[in-house]
Amino acid sequence: MPYNDVISRQDAAGLIPEEVAREIFQHLPEASVVMQLGRRLPNMSRGQQRLPVLSTLLTAYFVTGDMGLKQTSEMAWSNKYIEAEELAVIVPIPEAVLDDADYDIWGEIQPRITEAFAAAFDAAVLFGTNAPTSWPAGIVPGAIAAGHSVEAGTGTDLYEDIMGPNGYLALVEADGYQITGHVAALAMRARLRGLRDTQGQPLFVTGMQGATVYSLDGAPIYFPRNGSFDSTQALMVSGDWSQLVWAVRQDITYKVLSESVIQNASGAIVYNLAQQDMVALRAVMRIGWQLPNPVNRIQPTEGGVIGGSNVVGRYPFGVLLPESEP
Q1: pLDDT tens digits, residue range 273-314?
Q2: Pick from 187, 35, 47, 186: nearest CA to 118
Q3: Staple 85 to which of 8, 58, 132, 133, CB 3.0 to 4.6 Å?
Q4: Measuring CA to CA, which residue among 274, 269, 271 is closest to residue 258?
Q5: Which tens digits make up the pLDDT trace of 219-264?
Q6: DSSP states of 193-221 as a string?
Q7: How far apart are CA 124 and CA 120, in angstroms?
Q8: Helix (H, G, I), strand (E, B) or coil at 183
Q9: Maximum C-alpha span of the chain
Q10: Which residues contact residue 86 at a Cβ distance below 8 angstroms, ignoring those fewer than 6 apart?
């Protein structure tokens, strides 16, 4: 006669209800760091907006004697343009999945679309990644072209590469710009925690009552977490962010598609929404940016990527480059 038979949890697994958390565990959507730091202009009424930019400064002269002749001077302006380009994405999903889901799938998707647009915009502005040809060169290639880059390890330590007289911040300041903010790879936090000044004192001290506040020379440091910052191209980007302007021609608009077909780049139909009982959420926005970079009294020559050529000169940003591989 058996004495050790028992209905185990495994035997009754089909009868035990499974509790599913009502919360989807995920990080909060990350906003655009470029939009936070740059200067937003009023919404564009057309696809192109002209920006008059001061290109020649007046000069004043002393007059010699009571009857001396007063000299003349002039000012000049050139034009730069903000071109509104389209950012878009289509998210297809079977209707059966929507019907069977316990969650508001559209409500979950929309914040992620906003985050994806922010990441694409940041990557295009900072590095030129997938940027439209009508946009300026990215900040990192522009700073390198202008001669505003220092490779980590060039000086005796990281402090000298950033803050020293030959650091990349000094290169930006030499062109007449005040640093207003820094954008760095998240991995830079560990390197900055060990950063010490010329007296051997740590620059960033963690208090017992709160988290470490990261800033350099009074300007805050931002660490994007939306995937836009490519640490293989740059470790930190710093500059006068008031010089960067951006504008929206069309804010994010959503449209649910149900009778459309979705094609790939070769023209082949990937999804026939009506035939396959699918719907799709299409999101579109139009946005543009520009770096006016007006002339100043310190450096009259504009630098960066100009007309496809690298020009050393005035540029409001600098970049700390990663160490070269041996």
Answers
A1: 889 888 888 999 999 999 999 999 999 999 999 998 999 999
A2: 35
A3: 132
A4: 274
A5: 999 999 999 999 999 999 999 999 999 999 999 999 988 888 889 8
A6: HT-B-TTS-BSS---TTSPPPPEETTEEE
A7: 6
A8: strand
A9: 131
A10: 284, 285, 286
**In degrees rounded to 5, what are phi and psi of residue 287?**
-150, 155
Residues in the chain, how many?
Answer: 326
Count CA within 13 A, CB hemisphere, residue 57: 10
Q: How far is CA 152 from the centre of its chain?
A: 21
Helix H or strand E encompassing 254: strand 245-257
Structure tokens at 187: 């991995």
Domain ranges of the chain: 81-321
| Two structure tokens written together for 137 | 């060169």
What six digits make up the tokens of 50?
């002209």
Sign of CA dihedral 109, 113, 114, 116: positive
Do 152 and 161 touch, CB atoms closer than 8 A?
A: yes
Residue 214 has a pLDDT of 83
- Quote the pTM value: 0.86
Query: Beta-carbon neighbour count of residue 89 at 10 Å?
Result: 16
Strand order in the sheet with 39-40: 39-40, 245-257, 278-290, 85-94
Least Cα distance to 217 among 187, 175, 152, 173 occurs for 173
- Which residues lie below 8 Å from residue 287, measured CB to CB, with a gap of 6+? 84, 85, 87, 121, 246, 247, 248, 249
Three-class secondary structure of residue 107 per DSSP: helix
At 156, phi and psi to the nearest 5?
Answer: -70, -30
Query: CA dihedral in degrees (137, 138, 140, 141; nearest 10)?
Result: -30
